[in-house]
Every structure is written in C-alpha cells, then in structure tokens.
C-alpha cells in the first residue's frame, strides 16, 4: 500500500505562489509515476499534472499549463507541485497519487479520463482569495 502525505497548502492572494509536497512512506517514489489532482467544492476531482518514473517527463492540464511545475526529488522521496500566478479557480483540495502505470495518469491529465485510485490521502487545502 502506498502512503502519501500532501502538505504545503494554505491561503494565498491572487497572483501568489505556493509549493505543495507529496511525501511517501513505505515505498520508493522513483518506482512510480506521480500525479497531482485537485477537487474544488461541488466539483469532481481533476488531474492537473503528472511526472513519469522513467525519464521524468511532465504533463499538465491546460488549466494550469505555464503556471504549475511538477518535480521529483528521489533523495527526499518527495514530489513537488510549484504553483505560480494562482487565481481563485485554483482553490481546491490537492491530492497526489502514485501509480505504476504512467499511461493511466497521462490519460487523466491529458484527456480528462476518469482515474480510479484507492489510496487517496487527506490532501492539502489551497485557498486563493483576497
């Protein structure tokens, strides 16, 4: 079972930045592709970014492209989501997921495919408001 803990959320003004962390325990993240998801109140969970385990390729949903950056620090066993130019539409609980199948995460991010996952953590709340 993969246990991931998200952190780094908070309240930020429009235009501000935050860096989210996804830390793993019990597994080595370099064996997994990692995806970041978010769920806003009253909306379904959506995939925003993913990073492959093989070559570190990254992909982003159109809604965050150019503003968010996903990265992985294997030494720290942590994946980050650096978020810039935040706007109120980014307000959501953010979650990460570890998957042995990069294609599943890619399909979720690039095509909006439904993503089934049984190990969601508590997530971290991001609120963008003035």
How does the SSE layout of this entry go?
Blueprint: E1 3-7, E2 10-12, E3 18-25, E4 33-39, E5 46-51, E6 58-60, E7 68-73, E8 78-83, E9 92-99, H1 102-111, E10 124-128
Parallel strand pairs: 2-10
Antiparallel strand pairs: 1-3, 3-8, 4-5, 4-9, 5-6, 7-8, 9-10
What does this entry look like structurally?
This protein is mainly beta and 130 residues long. Helix content is 8%, strand content 44%. The chain has one helix and ten strands; from the N terminus they run E-E-E-E-E-E-E-E-E-H-E. It has one helix at residues 102-111, and strands spanning 3-7, 10-12, 18-25, 33-39, 46-51, 58-60, 68-73, 78-83, 92-99, 124-128. The strands form two sheets. Strands 2-10-9-4-5-6 form a six-stranded mixed beta sheet, with helices on one face. Strands 1-3-8-7 form a four-stranded antiparallel beta sheet, with no helix packed on it. The longest helix has 10 residues, at 102-111. It is globular, with a radius of gyration of 13 Å. The N and C termini lie far apart (39 Å). The mean pLDDT is 95.
Enumerate the strands of the largest sheet in spatial order, edge to edge or round the barrel: 2-10-9-4-5-6
Tell me the β content. 35-45%
Overall mean pLDDT: 95
Main beta sheet strand tally, sense and closure: 6 strands, mixed
The H/E string reads EEEEEEEEEHE
Structure classification: mainly beta
Give the gist of this structure.
This protein is mostly beta strands and 130 residues long.
């Amino acid at each position: 079972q993969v246990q991931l803990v998200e952190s780094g959320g908070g309240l930020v003004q429009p235009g501000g930045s935050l860096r989210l962390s996804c830390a793993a325990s019990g597994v080595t993240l370099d064996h997994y592709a990692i995806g970041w998801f978010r769920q806003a109140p009253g909306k379904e969970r959506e995939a925003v970014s993913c990073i492959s385990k093989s070559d570190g390729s990254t992909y982003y949903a159109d809604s965050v492209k150019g503003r968010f950056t996903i990265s992985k620090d294997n030494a720290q066993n942590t994946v980050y989501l650096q978020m810039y130019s935040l706007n109120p539409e980014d307000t959501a609980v953010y979650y990460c997921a570890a998957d042995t199948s990069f294609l599943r995460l890619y399909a979720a991010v690039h095509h909006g495919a439904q993503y089934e996952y049984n190990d969601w953590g508590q997530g971290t709340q991001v609120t963008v408001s003035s």
